[in-house]
Amino acid sequence: LPKLPVPPLRDTLTKYLDSIRATVTDKQYEKTQEIVKEFGSPGGLGEFLQKKLLEHAEMQDNWVYQFWLDDMYMKVRLALPINSNPGMVFPKQNFNDQNEQLRYAARFISGILDYKVIIDSHLLPIDRARSREKGQPLCMEQYYRLFTSYRYPGVGKDCLVTSQAQQQVHENEHIIVVYRGQLFALDVVCNSIRLSDDNIYSQLKRCVRMAQEEIDNHLRNYGNKPLPVGIMTSASRDVWAAVRRTMAENPTNQSYMAEIESCMFVVCLDDKSDVSMANQMIHGLGSQFNSVNRWFEKTMQFIIAEDGACGLCYEHSAAEGIAVVQLIEHLLAYMFLQRRKLTRMQSMCDLVPPRHLKWEISNDVMEKIKIAANELDRFLSINNLDLYVLRYEGYGKEFPKSQNMSPDAYIQIALQLAHYKIHQKLVSTYESASIRRYREGRVDNIRACSVEALRWCEAMVHGDKIDAGTKISLLRNAVKKQTDIMVQAILGYGIDNHMLGLRQIAEDTNIPTPKIFADVTYKQSNHFALSTSQVVPTTMDAFMCYGPVVPDGYGACYNPHTSSILVCLSSFRESSTTDSRTFAMALAQTFDEMKQLCLAASSSVTSSSSLVSAANQK
Ligand code: COA
């Protein structure tokens, strides 16, 4: 694959000014314009940093990869649940009892192993761009990281490690099973033979029985349940990093951690709960519920609950949703076909028993676990994460296509108007743009809060006297601008990565923070009060969801189906300015209005063109 280009400095600076215009005052804009001018002046700091960045790019496969990974994930100290890990909801199942749950889980695990065989044999078909320079091959590295990566906590900075050795086929491979906070290492491939569904089922039953025995013993001996170590991974990164370091001084604990870090994936056998599945997948509902049943920093955590709720919680730094969705599509298809291949029955006595990870915990660490549990509960007790899943049935992506508009740009512009209706302003908006056309490509940002979008929003909200013809042309203008920004971002000419690169080069060169990055406008432009992305599972009942990235913002993960649009909206109840349901209602109304506007405009075009043709006939 080609290397990601470093965009020309002048282009990025011009686009940067354009991108902030709709969200800052005239006075602030003028000030920023001056700062940008000085930065970009001939022989100025911008040129110096650009030169250094080009030199850095020469030596790297992808000049932004590490900068971006650190900035987006590794240096972020916030707790993983809600702030970073997305959740994904799968079609709900009906289990009559725990045996059915475990049988389903066994088949589910087989389905993942089935996919793993394809990954290990490097037989995944190479993804190709579906539009804009259609057919270009896309970077596949993320797929290979799904089962081989681990996000190690560190004080000040985490570290994503992908084991190259693990990318080869192994004779023995294990997973981690969690039941009621008890963790088990379970071998699912032994001497290169995959366990059969029946054997996995028997082993899961063993895990459940052993966990329950441990919990009952603890209750009998100490009057309380064993402390769930996994909840520590829900703490802020610095806190967990310090506790982990202490725990790892004990060789037993260290070997358990190694089991978790080197496993393929985690399977959480959850208890039933009566709240939304999306909440369950994102955070597990607190220490009295299923948050004890997690290990938040392992890349893939699959959740299968007793009440049939199924989904996943995934640690985001190793891969974007697209790779995860491909795996899920395979998995659900596998489950549907209920195939049982490449498995061989073994008698129970041949099976290595699951290894129960019985931690040795000091009093000090016990206190830390209690604090972590309280912290999470305090956050969740006020039911802070406000999720609303909008299933808009009015139309799907075919409608914007019929209007010769990009569905993605159309939805982004709708999100802008919905926001404007509620808050009477536009805000800095993030949309993930895949840059997998390039070596080691991850994402850049598509910024939707353009001046063109603002003009359209103003006309729609305040323009009673503005006619439909003008409004549709403002809409088309906004969609066109959005499409241009999107195309530039996916072709490697976005501005966010480039600005980050220049900032990071300055930092690495020990240059005092350049004015352009200390400017309040730059900070504001990185406060993403609307954080969005398109994630497109084809299964109707499966969707992805995540929390907002700032306290006063929204998250919006959407899937334009052929004839419906699913949008999972999130915000924090602690914020007095946001409300997910209100946003969802405004968005649904906006989708209706946009269609009416397009149809009104096309019918007026049709009626005027039929007048012309009637006149011609006369
Ligand atoms: N008229 C008619 N049809 C059009 C059109 C137009 N003007 N513009 C686009 N279309 C069609 C496309 O050909 C495509 O057709 P298809 O359904 O047959 O494939 C369809 O509309 C969708 O195109 P569009 O909505 O423009 O977007 P896209 O599918 O190219 O996706 C991004 C755009 C930015 C979402 C995508 O490039 C991307 O980067 N995705 C990754 C996002 C990501 O990383 N998410 C995970 C985050 S964890």
Automatic annotation (TrEMBL):
Keywords: Acyltransferase, Neurotransmitter biosynthesis, Transferase. It comes from the Eukaryota. GO terms for cellular component: cytoplasm; neuron projection; synapse. Its EC number is 2.3.1.6. The active site is at residue 316. Residues 4-588 form the Choline/carnitine acyltransferase domain. GO terms for biological process: acetylcholine biosynthetic process; neuromuscular synaptic transmission. It holds the Pfam family Carn_acyltransf. The keyword Nucleotide-binding does not apply. Coiled coil: none annotated. The keyword Acyltransferase applies. One of its GO terms (molecular function) is choline O-acetyltransferase activity. Belongs to the carnitine/choline acetyltransferase family. This is Choline O-acetyltransferase. It comes from Helobdella robusta. The lineage of its organism: Eukaryota, Metazoa, Spiralia, Lophotrochozoa, Annelida. The gene is 20216315.
